[in-house]
Structure prediction request, 363 residues.
Amino acid sequence: MATASSCQLKCRKAVGILILLMCCTSHYADARIASQFALPARDEEVGEESGLESQRAFESLLTLDQQQAGSRRLSFLVPTPSMILPYHNGVILSGAPEIAVYVIWYGSFGAAQKAPIVDFLSSFSAAPTVAPSVASWWKITAGYKDSQGLAVAPMVRLAGQQELADYSRGKALKNADIQALVLSSLATFPVDSNAMYVVLTAEDVVVEDFCRNECGAHLFTGPSAATKQQQLPIAWVGNSASQCPGLCAWPYAKPQYGPPGEPLLPPSGDVGTDGLIINLATILAGCATNPFNNGFFQGDASAPVEAATACAGTYGAGAYSGYPGQLLLDSASGASYNVLGAHGRQFLMPALWDPVTLACVAP
Prediction:
């Protein structure tokens, strides 16, 4: 499961004090949630207690860094070596012309919320006259190849939808509930181990670890009669409009942590919807390149750094902590974006780590 693990670090008092100073000047950007994690400066002398406090804060940041594989959660306080995502000789979603995505709408979604998300998932085959586009963003994944030299599928397609507006499993879900919803959907959806089954939750639904460690996550089922003895890639992504926009909808909401900044205007006009799309894009890239935790990733398999989370908080050139980078601006609406999609939609896509250039590439 691409979600959580903990970092166990020992920091002495001097290190804690040094981190406080570095937080005031650091421009290292690796975060979406993240761009926002700066430790507060203090005017009084830092003593033994504050050194311990600093240690705990630093460990908390690194814990989030490791925990977030389904969303953006990286905020490094010191320079880090070049990012490498080793291939672990496992399965990636390759060898097919497309990746079918089956969406389960869990909870109450209005038409205005669903339309941008549907258009996003319809944009991978679209070819806007003006670049960059969702399709060109996805082409970065072509550098990810399996042991047979087959690349990630060049297209993503919305293959089916199912609405569960009755909150059949309540408004507080665990990962087991996500899996149960997907397994139930197989009565309608076909079984396809090269597809993704994605549960999108409404803004009044709480998912296990949502707004604490994750904005979304990709998982997989075990073989069973329902899955025809196959493992299936599954995922969930939450709508953070009313729960944690500063964590999961940045830069379209004021950051919950770190230096304050004015939020950007979302293209759809709905912070929760555009935040969900950013996280869905992150999950799609992570799942395609590491669906069963043995593909491309760095770190612990239980909390891997993946294609998009390796570039957390970066959306354009010049990005740094608290600044998403240079983006396009719609002169009419004032909305910020970096790609175009179906029906002229504007979206914000995360930078992806390119295994060919060994660098993060923004759209």
